[in-house]
Structure formats: structure tokens, C-alpha cells
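Checked the freezer inventory, then went back to the computational side. Two predictions to log before the end of the day. The first one is the construct we discussed on Monday; recording sequence and C-alpha cells without edits.
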Amino acid sequence: MAKKTSSRTSPKSTDPKNPKKIVLAYSGGLDTSVILPWLKERYPGVKLVAFAAELGQGDELKGIEKKAYASGADEVIVKDLRKEFAEEYCFPMLRAHAVYENDYLLGTSIARPLIAKHQVMVAKQTKADAVGHGATGKGNDQVRFELTYKALNPKLKIISPWKDPTFELKDREAAVDYAKAHKVPIDQSKKNIYSRDRNLWHISHEGAEIEDPANEPLDSCLVMSLPVSKAPNKPQYVRVEFKKGNPVAVDGKKLAGHDLIQRLNNIGGQHAVGTTVLVENRLVGMKSRGVYETPGGTILYEAHKALEQLCLERDLYHYKQQVALKYAEIVYNGQWFHPLREAMQSFVDEANKVVTGTVTVKLYKGRALAVSAESKMSLYDLDLASFAMDGYDVTAARGFIDLYGLPMQVRGLKHKPKF
């Protein structure tokens, strides 16, 4: 009698469509921890490289190598990318003064291309033929990771378990059960009701009561900042020095980019600065609601704005504001390595050549307010700006207004308004 074969056969590792070695963006959280053994089952014989990026997420990476190996990784690579993140990603975005939908300072958006870039580099280093991530099929991060992979090495296979039809771990409960069954180490001592993403620039919070726009988010969700009700009753002043649009010192002390941001995070967080509640439009179509804490970034944006107002010529400043809207959209949509973003960066950096000086920012009860700014590149003329008319030909204003208002005057004569 012929031997029966099962209709359910696992993909063979010899299948050319299957990856031989995958570099997975690994955070140490529940999702990526269970993805490691799942990939071993999905692609028998595959080698797994767990790649973790240190971007200033606090103690989240503590013991991550041991955890990754215990979860099924064959190799673990951890890179400290904080300086590169601050100076080559956050600061170029700051120079553009990019803000998505009025409030979001793009903390998660700006981090993903950096992680993905180093995944591609690690793939080359370890001779891997695939890269992967644990982002869901509902969010923005899947786009940000995969567009970067495509831009930097289109030949790499892209492994996205959440979009794999055989991936059965569709919720937290299923993932926890899977972890227990496969002896994957997970921390069940903490019951975290929020979905969070943290790095040097910010921390985001989603889920629980935040998910419903009818609810006020609880102060207890905050991590980097005090709530306004607990902020000091006395204001604090902080001086930020810029050179060509880049922050270089805080209160007279020169600091590397990542140290500077961390210093401002500590100061701003104590004054409840930089917390916002936002309903945003995701790239994939739906709206989502989150709480964002960006204390240091908020101080930097306020200070940078004050210097741009002082140093940029009017038409240049107004056009740069338009560019900032598109720049923010590009970053949000994961197109950091798009040629349009790179070309826009050239314009932004040219404009920022005169953005040099020092700004004093007042921090008080959740507000960061630039109260003074000084620059050798300032276009502010105290004599022209004063109410005194000395040195200014006021008669020129009459002719200017007559010509500037001529189209409105003609229309008013032809089409008399009815009152």
C-alpha cells in the first residue's frame, strides 16, 4: 500500500523563494520575541539574526542578547545608534521644522528608516538574503521599514509575518500562549495596558482609554514627563545655542546631539513640556489616537522657530513653511530615502546657513516659550521696527498701497458690494 502523505507540508528550506538567513528588527518585546521561533517553524533550516538598535529607549534593551538567543536567534547584533539618530535624522528634520498634522513631531516615523538602514547593512555583513520586521499590516511602520529596504537593497527578500496568511498569532493572548508553549522568555510581571514606542526623541502611547476619542487620557500613562498639575510653580529658563540650524549647546555647555536631546528631555519633562493628544491620519487609511511626549524636541522646535523668524528673509521663510508640510508628510510616510526628501533637504540646509545664535526658552506649566533670541545673522533692525519715523520715507507707503490695492479698487468700482 502506498504511503499516505499529509496535505499540509512545511515550506522546504531548499525552495529558492524561501530565505536562508533573515535579519529581524528585534525589540525584545512580545511580538518580535515570538516571531523568532515562528520563523524557524515557517522556514525550516533558516538562520536568524536578531538586530536591536539602541535609540535611547531607556532600560528596554537590558538583557536583550540573552533573551534573543533564548527565543531562537542564531546571532544577535546590538548597535548604539543614538548619536547618528540625533545628528543625522532628528536634526535634519528639525532644520526643516517638520510637524505632521500640526502636533506630531514624528518621533516614531524618523526612527524607522535608521533601524531599517542598519538592518540592510547587517544583512550585507552577515551575508543574509532577507530582512524582516514585526510591524502589523494595519500600521504605518510596515511601510517605513519596507520602503527603506527597497530603497537601499531591492534584492533582499522582505519577511513580514503579520502579512503572511499562515501567521496565526493575531492578538496578545495568542502570542502569550505561543511564547509559553515554545519556552520564549517574556516578562509577565508587568501588565502594560498601553502600546508604546520609545526612543531618544519621544515616547508614544496608544490603546486602553486613549483609543476612544471621547475619553481624556490618564496622567498615569506619562513616562518622560510630569502632568501639568504636578509641574513646578516656578518657571525655568534654558538657553539653546544653534549653529547653521543645529543645536550645539545647552546653557553654555557644548554637547553631542544625543546628550543634548537627553538633557532637554530631563529639563522639559520636569515642566510637563511637550505632551500632546492627537487623532492622526495614518498612511494606510484609518485614523488613530495617541498621546505623545516629546519634551526635548518641543524645546528645540520652539527655539529653532525663534531663530528662523529672526534670521530668514520673509519670502524664504514663508516658502520654507510650505516645504515643511511636505517634508513632514514624506517622513511620516516612510520616504526618508526618497529623492524628493533628499532634494528638499538641500533647500532646507541652504536656508539654515544663517540660523545661528542663542535662544532663551521659558518652561512653565506645560509651555515652552521662546522669550529672547540673539544672532549675528539677525535681519531685525531696531530702528526700522520702532515707532519712530526717522530714516523712513513714509510718503513711499502711499504709492505702494495705491499700486498694491489697485486690483481691489477696480473690482470695488465695477462690482459695488451690497450692505
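The second is the one RB wanted added to the comparison set:
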Amino acid sequence: MPDQIHIQLMGHFAICINEVRVDHLVEKSRKGAALMQILLLNHGEGVPNIKLMSSLWSEENSTNPENALKTLVSRVRSLLNQVHPELGSCIVAERGSYRWKCLPDMTVDVYEIEQLLEQLQQDTVEEPARTQMFGRLMTLFAGDLLLDSEQNDWALPVATTLHNRYLTVVYRQVERLKQAEDYDSVITVCRKALEVDNLDDQLHIELMNALIKTERNNEAMLQYKYVTHLYYHYLGVRPSDNMQEFYTQIVNSGKTLDLNLESIRSELLESSEKQGAFICEYMVFKEIYNLQMRNLERLGSTMFLGVIMISNMDGSIMDPIQQDNIMQGLIEILRQNLRKGDTVSRFSPTIVALLLPMVNYRTGRMVMERVKTHFYRQYPNCSVAFNYRIGPLASEEKETQRAE
């Protein structure tokens, strides 16, 4: 029985013989591995020597690139033959080019993935074959093409195309599962697909919606908080409006028509015992703002809006991890040092918004200066600028005052 040779290009590069990984020799040569990858991705078509030289030595000045390519091919063939006696023959020389020729019983994950994507994008495939094919796709798509490989700029167009085609098929499968009201499978699919693209809004929203449909509201809330942290911490941006609006849906889905007097009284008592400012998601902050505006119009009173922004002293872009840590610390300072009736929310990666009832310009500035003092006391050696602005939501005075 011939050996089963499998080559993996998704996520990381690997060569397996009879399910045992054997590519340690090839990995010693980065250019050798890159040569194999380029040839494999051309599906047996010849790759001109000039294209190979351009891809493999794009940032190097080789005095004799043709000879360097011949030497590399010879070395890689030798390494492959040490892995398997017939593997070196897969690199075939043709006039002015090289190509990859698969051995019998050799499989390449990208080839099978492309075939599955093509079939799954057609509506002619019926169940249960579609489900089986989709499951196979999810197993093979272990990550984006050559994600862990170096010198793979030439692979980016192919990787992007595969990534987008994969997500399109996942979205279609999720829609099919939703129509069948199979929300447990939606959860499984979304979580698996998020391992490939952890910043896809649609996948996160579909996952949270499926968690709500299966009455797993706490998991939906944890997922929302995780996504929010992901965007702030690693990207330094605020989640999309669609993502933020989903917060209200999660909260509303957890409400019941429980009219038991004792349970309501206990919940209100627990809420009243919490000290400090109220910290909330921005969608809740907007609702509180709208409610307060209606009260201001009815009562003719004033509430002040405060905004705090942090930035590097020299104006450079702040490291996302440092930025997130400082913002979390700032929010905790606000919670501890503002009153119970004050409301705080993170408006953007570097901006916090505050609603301050029962203050005027003088007392409002005093509040902000006190927070500023506590901030620099907690971060005495940081080169971060603490800037704030405060102004009324409803007042005859139209100007705002700014302090830096």
C-alpha cells in the first residue's frame, strides 16, 4: 500500500506521511519552503523562473539569481528525498520555469478546500451531502493560508480570496441553520469560524443572537463584553454601531414579566446599595442621556456633559495595550470618585463620556480637576495627557469651557 502524503498550507505549512509530520528538514530552509508553496499554489502550472526569483529574492541583490534559483531547487529536492524517496521528483523543471507534480495518493488541503468552496456556493447540492461537505471544510480551514509562514507577501491575494469565499459559505450555512431554527449548530459554526476571523462583526452578532435564541443570555453578554474588549484592546477602535446596538437586545431579552413584589424589591435594593458612579455601555448611556434630556425640558433644570480624552504627550499613537490599561484605570477612578447619580461610559478607545447632574461650571470643573489629580496620582510617571471638556446639556449659556 503506497504512503499517504498530505501537504497542509492552511494556517501553517506541514508535510505529513501516513499522518506523521515529517517536514522538519524542509523547515530549515525558509526559501526552500517558500519555493514549494509557490509551486503548490499554482496547481501544477509552470511558474516562470523570473517570477520565482522576484518572489524569493524581492529584497535582496543577488549577483547571479539564475544560479541561486538552480542551487535552491537542487537543495530542496535533496531535502524532500530525505523525507520521502519520491518527493523530490515533484519539482519538475521545464523550459524557463518550474512546476509541482503531485504523486499518486498525495493530497493538498488547499486543493480540496477550493473544490469544497466551489461546490458549496452552488444551490444544487442537497442535504445531507451539503452538511458533510461543510463539516469537512470547517475541519480543513484551520486558519488563513500560510498564516504562520515568513516571506509570504506573494500569497496574500490568494489568502484574501480564500478567506472571503470561506466567510461567504459560512454566512450561507448560518442562514440555512437559522431557517431550520437549529441555533445550537449556529453557535458551533460561528465559534469555529471565529477561530479563523475573530474580528468579523457578522459572526459575533449571529453567535450572540443564537445564544439569546437558546436562552443563554449570560453567555451572550459575556460574548459582547469580550468583543468590546477585543476591539478596544487590540484595534484601538470602538465596535461598530450594529454591534453596540445589539447590547440593548441582549439586555431586553433577559427581561421577564416577573411581577413578584419581593424579587423586584430585592433587585432594587441591591442596585441602590452599589456605591460610586454608574458605569455602563454606550448604548445604555445614550438611553440615559435621552431620558435626562426629556426631564430637563420638563423641569427646566440643567445637567452637564463631561468628556475626558487621554493621549500621548508628544501626539504619537498610543500603544493599544497601554491605552486599554490606562482607560480601564481611568474608568475605575471615575467610579470611585464620582457620585452615585453620575453616569460614565467609554465613548471611544481614548474618550470617556460623563453625565453630571446637579452641578454648574464651577463645581463641574472642580469634579474634573479632582479626577485629574487622582489620575496622575495613580499614573505618576506616564507621559499621557489628560484633557477634558465640560458643558451644559440645557442652559442659556451656549459656550463650553475647556481645560487641559
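For RB: DSSP finds 15 helices and 13 strands in the chain. The CA atoms of residues 47 and 236 lie 41 Å apart. Let me know if you want it refolded.
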